[in-house]
Specification:
Elements (H helix, E strand, L loop, with lengths): L2 H15 L11 E5 L11 H19 L3 E5 L7 H11 L3 H9 L4 H10 L1 H18 L16 H16 L3 E11 L4 E2 L5 E3 L5 E11 L2 E7 L10 E4 L4 E7 L2 E6 H8 L5 E8 L7 E3 L6 E6 L12 E3 L5 H13 L1 H4 L13 E2 L7 H8 L8 H18 L1 E2 L11 H14 L3 E7 L4 E2 L6 E11 L4 H12 L2 E3 L3 H11 L3 E2 L1 E2 L6 E2 L2 E6 L8 H14 L8 H9 L4 H8 L3 H14 L4 E5 L3 H15 L8 E5 L2 E3 L2 E2 L10 H8 L1 H9 L8 E3 L2 H19 L10 H22 L3 H23 L7 H15 L4 H10 L21 H23 L7 E6 L2 H12 L5 H9 L5 H13 L10 H19 L2 E6 L6 H5 L6 E4 L1
Parallel strand pairs: 1-2, 1-25, 7-10, 8-13, 20-26, 25-26, 27-29, 30-31
Antiparallel strand pairs: 3-4, 3-19, 5-18, 6-7, 6-17, 8-14, 9-10, 9-11, 12-13, 15-16, 19-21, 22-24, 23-24, 27-28, 30-32
């Protein structure tokens, strides 16, 4: 098959016939959409995994009879595209290389630099649409929009935020945010090159006094202050003495900058080198004990203050660094002995001895402070255990006996009140804006926030989640955890593309805050686009009517001079298609976009408009490795389609994994899929040659086994478990057909009706994942119309024939038994096979035991022996059956076995190239006959 030719053929036919355009009608609807990609580059194999899953599910539902709306928009909001253009203008090599990978020419890049952001957005939107069409996504293209570029969509966002503000979900206040000093704006998850998911965290600054100066040691564990043995500084780094709210602090220069952005008055007085602090003493804030300042290379002056307190009993990093100082003899240089820095235990926890950090370091075999990964693991083990189960020891003053998990907040507030501590905000991990600037935490005044911390709002979200279907179900815990920890979130920024807040236009709605209910816009986007409705006519009153049914339509129509029927039609479209029936995305978006999607929906609409289901999938690796430019394994969708064709790409990536496990794009998988489809193509071409009309056991078996495949494929499609669905719909089904052809001998001796029915069902089940090939197969086999809108195969209980399945299983097992005996006997050639069907009494006993499995062996033996005359042989047989009671399955009647074997005699003789004799064990004294059982034939090879 010429894949490219076939794909172009069917894509043109789909477009001409408009079969994927969905309008209001009487049929039950199903509404889903692909995630909106950022238009700052092309699509790669990672996008393809998530997108193909969504399209395959939409196609499956369409074949199940639903009026499916699969819509698509594009995302230009925020820093992603603006940062891209800025990097291009600065001739950033990495960005230039990325664009080249996705097919941008030198002329394109020149235009990007000169024509700016909107040109770039429209350029990549066009390219992505081409890619989506080339891979066969069944999208209603009449509903396209680009966020931040389309004025009508911006008007929709203004309405959204006016609505949220009226209902009290948007507030203004002072909060810590992750801040880009270059863009002078908060940086949301999708405005970041690095650090998605990172957030602000408050560090306690414990004040160690050194003369008239203060060394503020940053810690997340203020309760361990009673176990401090020394202070760490980085001897290779430079520090500053700065006036901070009137006190002289010794801190890193970056800390001075950050604190200045955290509502503190900061003035740098002088600079000092880290090694100038070594050997000096500082007094701890609670016991007035002298604490020595010592060197440690692990101290990062770019993180918090650059001053670290050492608690070696409970901090693996501290213990390893201190051990190195002791063992190197360097400690003596500062006039200290081992006893001066003896670890002090302040937390007791079950499962650990006096010094947990020392124990875990020893257990993990950590020998050096350079073993960062192991030290991070050790730190996590100790901190988690001590936080959840730890209790402060007697040496912790008034806090002795308190649980660590409960005392942290009280201790922090007490120290603040006493002037012995302060707070500094830091990011939980490195964050880099898309403009390539490293970010930090700023306390922003008069910022606009979404009140995600509101417990009443969270209750609504949990209620929504409780009634939703999740694919997979394991994602529910991730959602619940996100809902629990989610705090107020900045919803606006100062720079980037986007919609200005309608009441405060110096702020722009940020990336993740204008992509939460855009699905509702899809329902009316067709009419807005086709009728060219101007943004100024889409007032809040118009949207209130469309989305809430608020006010009289005549009044609304008159107020904005919009056609009354058009308004009613927009309202009808929304009411018909909403709510969303399925939203599928990557698992990484559970912690932001997907959860925000739920928050916004429950805030804006009543329960009948809340989302019904969410699917989440894993990331994508390439040949077992993470995709990255440094590894040279970025796989643009356009390139791999050219190389392999759309359908093989679709099935190879969609079937590579399921649930939230990571997918793995492997080229070797293409070969396996190609060979299966070539087998189907060849069989479909030759089906007309089948001439058998009567239904034999093998034909009944084929249709019976097909029902299980239909049942399992349907179940797994419904759960978005495409890997398993493909296992049944493609691999099991082609194996089924191969066995059938083996049994019949060839296509000519097959039953045409059974073969055609099976092939039609298989092709339909593969259509959601490989639509182009399946349309071609459907046409080849004489199918009417498009298979993309044909009826999904239904499980037919009436076609399930257990006897035929038992018969074929018996035959398969017999053939395997022959092969095993031949191998054990080391026979080069078989001249004759004699198959013995077990004696009649064994069938009677077997069935009695099977029917009375719940009875004890003695009881059933007694009952059976009253009617059988075979003495010890019967007892032995019963005992044998009871030894494998759980393995017993229904069997064919004895006369059926004889009939099936006689029918298969010719087949067996052809398979083994020898004479085959079927013998009734009742009529022979052969020893092999005595070994025959109802579920296993006796076999004699000669």
């Amino acid at each position: 098959m010429d894949f490219k030719k076939v794909e172009k053929k069917w894509q043109k036919r789909w477009e001409r016939s408009k079969i994927f355009e969905a309008d209001v009608e009487k049929r039950k609807k199903f509404f889903t959409s692909l995630i909106i990609p950022y238009v700052n580059g092309g699509l790669h194999i990672g996008h393809t995994f998530t997108f193909t899953r969504t399209d395959a599910y939409a196609r499956y539902k369409r074949m199940c009879g639903f009026n499916v709306l699969l819509a698509q928009g594009f995302h230009a909001t925020g820093e992603p595209i603006l940062g891209t253009v800025e990097r291009i203008r600065n001739n950033d090599k990495s960005q230039l290389e990325t664009f080249r990978i996705y097919g941008a020419t030198k002329t394109d890049i020149k235009n990007f630099k000169g024509k700016g952001v909107e040109y770039v957005a429209r350029f990549w939107t066009k390219k992505i649409i081409e890619d989506m069409k080339s891979v066969g996504f069944s999208i209603d293209w009449r509903r396209v929009f680009i966020t931040a570029i389309y004025p009508t969509f911006s008007r929709f966002i203004e309405w959204q935020y006016n609505t949220l503000r009226k209902r009290g979900f948007v507030t203004q206040g002072t909060h810590p945010v992750i801040w880009c000093p270059h863009c002078k704006s908060p940086t949301g998850d999708h405005d970041r090159l690095e650090g998605e998911g990172e957030s602000p965290v408050g560090y306690t600054l414990l004040k160690f006094s050194m003369g008239d100066k203060i060394l503020p040691a940053a810690t997340l564990r203020p309760e361990t202050i009673y176990g401090v043995t020394n202070i760490w500084v980085n001897p290779e780094s430079e520090y500053v003495v700065a006036k901070v709210d009137g006190e002289k602090w010794v801190i890193s220069e970056s800390a001075a900058q950050k604190l200045g952005d955290q509502l503190k008055k900061v003035e740098i007085i002088e600079r000092i080198k880290g090694d100038e602090l070594l050997g000096k003493k500082a007094k701890d804030p609670c016991g007035n004990k002298d604490i020595s300042i010592l060197p440690a290379s692990f101290v990062d002056t770019g993180n918090t203050t650059g001053i670290v307190m050492s608690v070696p009993s409970h901090a693996p990093y501290d213990w390893v660094a201190l051990k190195e100082l002791i063992e190197s003899g360097e400690l003596e240089f500062y006039g200290l002995t081992k006893n001066d820095v003896e670890p002090v235990s302040v937390v007791k926890v079950e499962g650990f001895g006096e010094h947990p950090a020392m124990e875990v370091v020893k257990r993990l075999g950590i020998m050096s402070s350079k073993e960062i990964d192991k030290l991070d693991e050790a730190t996590s083990i100790v901190y988690k255990k001590e936080f959840h189960f730890g209790v402060l020891r007697e040496n912790c003053g008034e806090y002795a006996g308190s649980k660590v998990s409960e005392v942290k907040e009280k201790l922090f507030l007490d120290f603040i009140e006493a002037g012995a501590a302060d707070i500094m905000w830091e990011t939980t991990g490195k964050v880099v804006c898309r403009c390539t600037t490293k970010n930090y935490v700023k306390i922003l005044e008069n910022q606009w926030f979404l009140k995600f911390s509101d417990e009443n709002w969270k209750k609504l979200v949990r209620k929504c989640l409780e009634r939703m279907r999740l694919c997979p179900e394991e994602a529910r815990t991730n959602f619940l955890n996100t809902i629990d920890w989610l705090k107020d979130k900045a919803c606006a920024r100062k720079t980037g593309l986007g919609t200005p807040l309608p009441w405060d236009k110096e702020w722009i709605v940020e990336t993740l805050s204008d992509s939460t209910i855009y699905m509702a816009y899809y329902t009316i986007a067709r009419l807005i686009n086709e009728k060219k409705i101007p943004a100024k006519k889409l007032t809040d009153g118009v949207f209130d009517y469309i989305f809430f049914g608020k006010d009289d339509v005549k009044k609304v129509s008159k107020s904005v001079k919009l056609n009354l029927k058009l308004l009613q039609q927009m309202r009808d479209e929304f009411v018909y298609f909403y709510p969303m029936d399925m939203r599928n995305s990557g698992k990484d978006l559970i912690q932001n976009h997907l959860t925000f999607y739920l928050f916004h929906h429950v805030a804006v609409w009543p329960e009948n408009m809340w989302p019904k289901a969410i699917g989440a999938n894993g990331y994508v690796n390439v040949e077992g490795e993470k995709m990255s430019k440094s590894k040279g394994n970025i796989q643009p969708l356009r390139d791999i389609i050219k190389q392999f064709g759309a359908d093989l790409v679709r099935i190879n990536i969609a079937a590579s994994n399921e649930n939230m496990d990571d997918a793995d794009w492997r080229v070797e998988g293409i070969k396996s899929f190609r060979s299966r489809y070539e087998f189907l193509e060849d069989l479909i071409k030759n089906t007309k040659k089948a001439r058998v009309k009567e239904m034999r056991n093998i034909d009944v078996w084929l249709l019976s086994k097909l029902q299980k495949i239909i049942q399992e494929s349907t179940k797994n499609y419904e759960m978005m478990k495409f890997r398993t669905a493909v296992s049944f719909a493609l691999f099991d089904s082609t194996n089924l057909l191969k066995w059938y052809l083996k049994r019949t001998g060839n296509v000519r001796d097959s039953n045409r009706r059974a073969l055609q029915t099976t092939l039609n069902a298989i092709v339909k089940m593969l259509t959601p994942l490989t639509p182009h090939m399946c349309e071609e197969f459907w046409q080849m086999s004489g199918g009417k119309g498009f298979i993309s809108v044909a009826e999904w195969p239904r499980y037919n209980q009436n076609l399930v024939n257990i006897e035929s399945e038992i018969a074929e299983t018996l035959l398969e097992n017999t053939m395997k038994g022959v092969e095993d005996i031949k191998k054990i006997a080391k026979m080069e050639r078989i001249n004759k096979i004699t198959l013995f069907v077990a004696e009649g009494w064994k069938f009677r006993v077997y069935n009695k035991v099977l029917r009375n499995k719940d009875k004890g062996m003695n009881e059933i033996t007694k009952e059976i022996m009253q009617g059988e005359a075979y003495g010890q042989a019967t007892v032995n047989f019963i005992q044998n059956l009871y030894q494998r009671l759980n393995e017993l399955k229904p069997i064919l009647p004895r006369n059926w076995q004889m009939q099936i074997l006689k029918e298969a005699k010719k087949f067996l003789e052809a398979e083994f190239n020898c004479h085959v004799e079927i013998v009734d064990s009742n009529k022979t004294e052969n020893k092999k006959a005595k070994q025959a059982a109802p579920q296993k034939l006796g076999i004699l090879l000669e």
